[in-house]
Amino acid sequence: MFRFEDPIYLWLLVLIPVFALFRFFTYRNQKKRLRKFGDPNLLKSLMPDVSRFRPSVKFWILQAALALLIIMLARPQMGTKISHEKRTGIETIIALDISNSMRAEDIVPSRLDRSKMMIENLVDHFTNDKIGLIVFAGDAFVQLPITSDYVSAKMFLSSIDPSMMATQGTDIAAAIDMSMNSFTQEEGIGKAIIVITDGENHESGALEAAEAAKNKGMRVFVLGVGSTQGAPIPIPGSGDYMKDNTGNTVMSALNEDMCRQVAQAGGGAYIHVENNSAAQQQLDNELDKLSKKETSTTVFSDYDEQFQAFGILALLLLILEICIFDRRNPLLKNISLFKRKGEPAMKGEGMPLARMIVLVCISITSVFSPLTSAYAQTDRQYIRQGNKQFEAGDYANAEVSYRKAVEKNPKNPQAAYNLGNALMAQKKDSAAIEQFQSAARIETNPLRKYQSFHNIGVICQTHKMYGEAIEAYKSALRLNPNDDETRYNLVLCKHQKQKQDKQNQQNQQNKDNQKKDEKKDEQKKDQNKDEQKQKQQEQKPQMSKDNAEQLLNAAIQQEKQTQDRLKKAQQQPQRRNIQKNW
């Protein structure tokens, strides 16, 4: 694949036809002036060393060199740059549940979005590890084969949506089976399968699949996303919630018992994901326990610079132009490479303007071409590219550009801050907070550092995390006490936190009262049941011997009919029928 990194410089190629026209009119005027001196044939015999074709050849050589220099400035790039590196790490396959139940919003902003944020944070903590991505619902398929290209992993992650799956449901067994077959053949390296799901397992075989993975030396970790109380499943674009066959609103709840059983069978750990970073830290600690091994990794970068070849060609053409004289060399006059033409006006002139412009381009290129090569590999280029994409509203690609800038120079606070803004624009708030914190740590300018704390406060305030927002706003005001917006947000957060604390206290009191009422109701129900049992035992008539024999015969006949139905059902082929669409 071929492209130009800075194609705007190609507009300078318009100079080529302009110079050609200029030379054409100059040559014609010179010819007219030449006729005023005398007969052209006579002048030709008087100046035998003047060539007709040498100036034209020199001119077009200069034109070709100029074109190559312009192409060189446009930075031609071709193919992908491949490098082989030795890395010591683990292999991780992430199986992400994208069934409709993952749209539930009991975890902010939703179960699926929160899972994506966790995966992004996990990738950010990886340095020498390999990662693969599998998505599943009623079926499972590989979204990203196992790789060390973390930028591509995040790009694939952004496009994941429940609409990708035609078959709904939750088949954890299929996801684990596909994950086992997605690892490399390396031995002695830690291999982890991370299943992120709400645990609504509509298919069987998850425990058996987890045990099979454990027997092959793989550990299965289960991240439970959601609340055990349950939440409705929103329908995108409608403002309504999903309903079952009877017309009732579906309440999707986290099945923690099933998640724990799968993690235990797979030799891993169960981690409950909430609206904090505790699950992320616990998962990182578990993965650090796995054995690491040195592996050979192929790393692909975007494009490889090809301007060097054009620069070499331009240099050769300029050397050739210098070696060709406007007039014949007396030492080589017996070698006739060009026909001679007696035109005094062409003698020793060539094309001074074109030559001067080419020489200026050579000077500029010789000074800046080393800088261009180094500049292509610096973080500032990626930051500028990301700024253009961010201003155009292309936040996903802007995020990729800023991440490349951070990889080139992790100590650049502007790259981390801009990456936080790109993540914030995509509502990836957890990852955005992490980037703003990183920018604040390495930033030395107080005015820029305060912007990071201000944005952290805005994100926390949006998610009603008023305590964290207040601390962020205080840090921002310490660096910039004159910012009225931050001061206003701080006062507003304090007021909202007071209301939130009062509401939490009331809710806790209501829960305690409700529990007391439920206990009382249960005690009353137990008393009523005991009374009813005693009455039934007192009023229960004695059964005769004939009636007992009749009931026994009826039970035996019903058991035979049930066994006959089971035999017929086993003989018929079984078909998979998923009644639930979440």
Radius of gyration using CA atoms only? 38 Å
The proportion of strand residues reads 5-15%
Q: Which range best describes the helical content: under 10%, 10-25%, 25-40%, 40-55%, 55-70% or over 70%? A: 55-70%
Distance between the termini: 42 Å
| Form type | elongated
Find the structural class using helix and strand composition: alpha/beta
- Give the spatial strand order of the biggest sheet: 6-5-4-7-8-11
Largest sheet: 6 strands, mixed
The average pLDDT is 79
Tell me the total number of β-strands: 13
Number of helices: 19
Unreliable residue stretches: 337-354, 364-376, 572-578
Any key phrases for this structure?
582 residues; six-stranded mixed sheet; three-stranded antiparallel sheet; 12% strand; elongated
How would you describe this protein?
- Helices cover 55% and strands 12% of the residues.
- The radius of gyration is 38 Å and the shape is elongated.
- A six-stranded mixed β-sheet has the order 6-5-4-7-8-11, sandwiched between helices. The chain has a three-stranded antiparallel β-sheet with strand order 1-2-13. It has a two-stranded antiparallel ribbon with strand order 3-12.
- By secondary structure, the protein is α/β, with parallel strands linked by helices.
- It has 19 helices and 13 strands.
- Helix 5 packs antiparallel against helix 13 (395-408), helix 7 packs parallel to helix 8 and helix 12 (379-391) packs parallel to helix 14 (413-425).
- Strand 5 and strand 6 (140-147) form a beta hairpin.
